[in-house]
Amino acid sequence: MIDLFSDTHTLPSDGMRRAMADAELGDEQLGEDPTTRRLEETIVKLLGTEAAMYMPTGSMCNKVAVSALTKPGDALVCDHLAHVYRFEGGGSAVLSGIVFEPLATEKGIFTPQQLDAVMRPGNVYEPRTSLVSIEQTHNFGGGVVWSLEEYEAVCATAHDHGASIFTDGARLLNAVAATGVAADRWAAPVDAVWIDFSKGVGAPGGAVIAGSAEFIETAMRFKYLYGGAMRQSGVLAAAALYGLDHNVPRMADDHTNAASLAAGLREIGLEVAEPQSNMVFCDPPPGVELAGFVNAMESEGVRIGAVAGRIRMVTHVDVSTDDIATAIKAARRVVGGS
Ligand SMILES: *Cc1c(COP(=O)(O)O)cnc(C)c1O
């Protein structure tokens, strides 16, 4: 089976498994897991922040960031397709008591003008807009990449209004690969940023959140509060370190594969937006049901996703250039019936 369902479906390679087996371990909750600490130090260097903290999941990073940067009754601005808003069971509303102020966008990218229009200082009647969230790359926007200019402009607007801003960087390293803009440039204008290891980095789990020492101190309290503190997490941290060394340097290949997939699907008559990173989104061919198309592809040995009413195909370290050619042939058979 060629698995284009998600970049969360990568399996640890033999080398990654060996790194996990060999990891030096201790008690993460006490700050005594040496491999986890090494990972945190690696991320501090990569992002140029004062501090970083290992986390069990990216979803928990969003929860912790929102809790650390808001008070109950505050408003959080994000786009209407943002993971933190649409896909986490309303978790931040439950845990932080915030209200979401989602901005209507085409692909998850919003402008300083849009932001400016909804930022409120708060009074006895109105929520105070205390936090803004950016998703880079934007998942349900289509793997879309914010340009540094767009990104820095909304950061400045948030700060002009006295609000904080954080980046859901589940796939920040894909944005780095796509733009050539180094990771620390994306971290510099925000108050917090996190990276997922279970996506393109290819590890079985884990994430890291980074920011000022003061932010991480507050975030650590919420990590404990939400049950996210771990013990011998170095087994997973070792996988992340291995992925950073071995899988991230080849991440641009995933983007090339996504571009080839899009081109191949266009050739057989599908309307496909030009991918900006490792995701290909398209509608099923005219007259074909989404679920029917997904099932037919699966019968052809290619697993694909259906998200937000569209077909989503995601490239990653376990998908080769040959797999892309095979997937295009499968789609040709499904579309043409031959
Ligand atoms: C996957 C994802 C998350 C959640 O990360 P998990 O590690 O799966 O909990 C959050 N935001 C975005 C944009 C994602 O793609």
How does this structure look, described?
There is one protein chain. The chain has 338 residues and is of the alpha/beta class. It has 2 domains: 13-246, Type I PLP-dependent aspartate aminotransferase-like (Major domain) (Aspartate Aminotransferase, domain 2, 3-Layer(aba) Sandwich), CATH 3.40.640; 250-337, Alpha-Beta Complex (Aspartate Aminotransferase, domain 1). It is 43% helix and 16% strand. The chain has 14 helices and 12 strands. It has helices at residues 14-22, 34-47, 58-69, 83-86, 91-96, 112-118, 148-160, 172-179, 183-187, 213-225, 234-246, 251-267, 290-299, 321-336, and strands at residues 2-3, 51-55, 75-79, 99-103, 129-135, 164-169, 192-196, 207-211, 279-282, 302-303, 305-307, 310-314. The chain has a 7-stranded mixed beta sheet, with helices on both faces. Helix 7 links the parallel strand 5 (129-135) and strand 6. Helix 1 packs across helix 11, helix 2 packs parallel to helix 11 and helix 12 (251-267) packs parallel to helix 14. The longest helix has 17 residues, at 251-267. The model has no long low-confidence stretch (mean pLDDT 97). The protein binds pyridoxal-5'-phosphate. Residues 57-59, 62, 83, 135, 139, 168, 170, 196, 198, 207 line the site of pyridoxal-5'-phosphate.
